[in-house]
Amino acid sequence: MRVVIAGGHGKIALRLERRLADRGDQAVGLVRNPDHRADVEAAGGQAVVCDLESAGVDEVVKVLEGADAVVFAAGAGPGSGAARKDTVDRAASALMAEAAERAGVRGFVQISSMGAGAPPGEDADEVWAAYIAAKTAAEVDLRGRDLDWTILRPGGLTDEPGTGRVLLGPPPLPRGSVSRDDVAAVVVALLDEPRTAGRTLELVRGDVPIDTAVRAL
Ligand SMILES: NC(=O)c1ccc[n+]([C@@H]2O[C@H](COP(=O)([O-])OP(=O)(O)OC[C@H]3O[C@@H](n4cnc5c(N)ncnc54)[C@H](OP(=O)(O)O)[C@@H]3O)[C@@H](O)[C@H]2O)c1
């Protein structure tokens, strides 16, 4: 399987690249900073420099040709303002999805966030409100595409070692956290299970082995 990962130097993305490479799949990580190539390659992936806030759709289509799936793992990140929530968390996802349609790449796993799909609380600050609005709009965009999409909404992300056990299911799940290791492992399992297409799923830490949780969906 050849999987193109938007936000290829992200913390989930690097873990995902390592997992895919370890089992013989090809991971292609899109990075905007050329200095990040070495880390993607060290994780076993192939790095392609592509800034998703300035790239045109034709450029992305070229990168996607011959791929089996896209994983959207980019994000403007903590410390970024409301404007970049829109240009990355919404618009870059829509760009990847449009390019996937044009390139004929059917599989698309979008890493969204718990909290998406509903208005932010009344006490939400401007940046959190922009983040939730961007993630929600990216989900709406993806659901309208002719793709085998799966939307994954993790809870709060941690850098703890993965446990291989999760709570995964349609919203709403109780709020909670989940390790990036386990998110990456769930993404691999979703890529392997075509019947998860068309599903919106939430993810927090739990007791169910990941393969069992995905099979049970
Ligand atoms: N933090 C949480 O608790 C939480 C909870 C639920 C969901 N999420 C979502 O989970 C996803 C991944 O999380 P993570 O912790 O792995 O994120 P991360 O480490 O911040 O990685 C995001 C990546 O996106 C890249 N990126 C930003 N702008 C880009 C652009 N214009 N073109 C190409 N790449 C760009 C960043 O590259 P640079 O290094 O160059 O900036 C970074 O490598 C994000 O979508 C996030 O919103 C987070």
UniProtKB/TrEMBL annotation:
InterPro entries recorded: NAD(P)-bd_dom, NAD(P)-bd_dom_sf
Lineage: Bacteria, Bacillati, Actinomycetota, Actinomycetes, Streptosporangiales
Residue ranges occupied by any NAD(P)-binding domain in the UniProt entry: 7-194
Classification via Pfam families: NAD_binding_10
Protein name: NAD(P)H-binding protein
